Amino acid sequence: MRKNIVAGNWKMNTTVPEGVALAKEVNQCLEGFKANCEVIICVPFTHLVPVCAVIDQQKLGLGAENCADHKSGAYTGEVSAPMVESTGATYVILGHSERRQYYGETAETLREKVALALASNLQPIFCIGEVLEEREKGTHFDVVRKQIIDGLFNLSAEDFGKVILAYEPVWAIGTGKTATADQAEEMHAFIRQCVADRYGKEVAENTSILYGGSCKPSNAAELFAKPDVDGGLIGGASLKAADFIGIVKAF
Ligand code: PEP
Asked: What is the pLDDT of residues 193-235, one digit of tens each?
């Protein structure tokens, strides 16, 4: 059966000492109880090695927020999937809307990144989601289906089975405006059906689909109670251990 997952996305926040302190705090909170879900933090590249050294990855998974679309070579400033793997991380966020919007990531680039991540034993947390205009026009289902088809449906069923999906309506990211639990469920059920149409019901039932977009301790339980919402990708609220753990405890 699919896993419930709460994953933090720290984005470009915290210095290394601040990040290490936050990771330690989250790790310590998790030592005190048995979470009913898998818990992951995705941190800036600079933080991966020192954070890896202070967490227990049996309790708290570690991921990067991106990786390059090439394995190695003359790509100044880029960080490859094998480099991420060598830090001890086992997850990577790919296709976040901020990367698509500000860094021009295309479906083609993302297919490369997904393939390289999988080749380096990194589990992709693959983000999809519509912008406000698309939701208002009523094209949000088509947009999300196209993002999944173009970014992921070239994969074999075995490889697709390693991917975690994150539905993040762009209008809800960092805006304080959360999708209602019904809106989230409607889209998650649609996404699961798209996966079933391509890979069959069993693969679809085993795929974890996280919700992301202004998820906080106060709304997490309602969202996670929906049958097709398998957890959350958490931005702002993952920067405070108490808030993040509050969301984990919503399961
Ligand atoms: C995100 O960027 O992945 C996200 C969900 O952000 P926030 O929780 O801050 O809306």
From this structure: 999 999 999 999 999 999 999 999 999 999 999 999 999 999 9
Tell me if 168 CB under 6 Å of ligand 1: yes
Radius of gyration of the chain (CA): 17
Question: What separation in Å is there between the alpha carbon of 101 and the centre of ligand 1?
Answer: 14
Q: Any bridge partners for residue 123, and if so which?
A: 91
The count of domains in the chain is 1
What is d(CA 238, CA 240) in angstroms, rounded to the nearest whole number?
6
Among protein residues, the one whose CA lies closest to atom 4 of ligand 1 = 235
The parts of the chain modelled with pLDDT lower than 70 are none
pLDDT tens, residue by residue, 20-40? 999 999 999 999 788 999 999
Residue 177's pLDDT is 85
The rounded Å distance from CA 204 to ligand 1 centre is 24
**Ligand 1 atom, smallest distance to 215 CA:** 8
| CATH number of the domain within which 14 lies | 3.20.20.70
3 within 8 A of 37, measured Cβ to Cβ: yes
Say how far apart CA 228 and CA 99 lie, in whole Å: 26
Residue having the nearest C-alpha atom to atom 2 of ligand 1? 235
Rounded to the nearest whole angstrom, what is the distance from the C-alpha of residue 1 to the centroid of ligand 1? 26
Domain membership of residue 123 as a residue range: 5-248
Predicted local confidence at residue 87, as pLDDT: 98
Q: Is the CB of 169 under 6 A from ligand 1?
A: no
